[in-house]
Amino acid sequence: MKKILPFILLAGVGFLSFSCDNKDDVVVTKDYDTISQSFDINPNFTKVSDNLYRWSDAFINPLVQSDMVLIYMQVGTDGDSPIWKLLPYTYYVGNPNNDAVDYIYEFSKYGATININSTSTFNLTANPSYYQGKRFRVLILPANATGTGGAKMANNNVVDYKDYNSVIKYYNIDESKIKTK
């Protein structure tokens, strides 16, 4: 029995070593769950005060921790193409008080909020054009930049998030498929 025990122990160690071999594992080269999402919104802002209006919405599905949200506001057009400005964005009213209107956003994995506020001497309630009829584009992007909808990492390019067209190109977003929510 004493002569058989070392062989059994050696067989057990050999079996464990073989079963822990991961050479037959499939290597995943694409991450199919990090897809860019985008949609337009024409929000109805709620009055918080004469100088603050707010819109909030929950995401249908919570975001992955590494996702990021960018929100752009349409500030005009260039021919048929909209001109987008990344939030936060400050618009200077151009009055003698040098008043400004700030468009700010924040997000969590559960939703996003857009705040529009103004300097204390500028009453937003009396100037509804600064919060009514505004169009925003929400981009939900994979921060890890992998996957079929993720960023192309060729030549270690870095995207300029302030440049909307650069972001669209970098993340392969098809603008013809962007819907209004």
Describe it.
The chain has 181 residues and is mainly β. It has helices at residues 4-19, 164-170, and strands spanning 37-41, 46-49, 52-58, 67-78, 81-86, 89-92, 100-107, 111-118, 136-142, 179-180.
Shape: elongated
Q: For this entry, what is the oligomeric state of its chains?
A: single chain
Are there runs of 5+ residues with pLDDT below 50, and where? Answer: 26-33, 147-155
Task: Give the terminus-to-terminus CA distance.
Answer: 76 Å
**Could you state the order of secondary-structure elements as H and E?**
HEEEEEEEEEHE
* Number of helical segments with 4 or more residues: 2
Q: Class by helix and strand content?
A: mainly beta
Overall pLDDT confidence: 81
Strand residue percentage:
25-35%
Please summarize the sheet with the most strands.
Answer: 5 strands, mixed
E-strand count: 10
Secondary-structure topology with pairs:
Blueprint: H1 4-19, E1 37-41, E2 46-49, E3 52-58, E4 67-78, E5 81-86, E6 89-92, E7 100-107, E8 111-118, E9 136-142, H2 164-170, E10 179-180
Parallel strand pairs: 1-10
Antiparallel strand pairs: 1-9, 2-3, 3-8, 4-5, 4-9, 6-7, 7-8
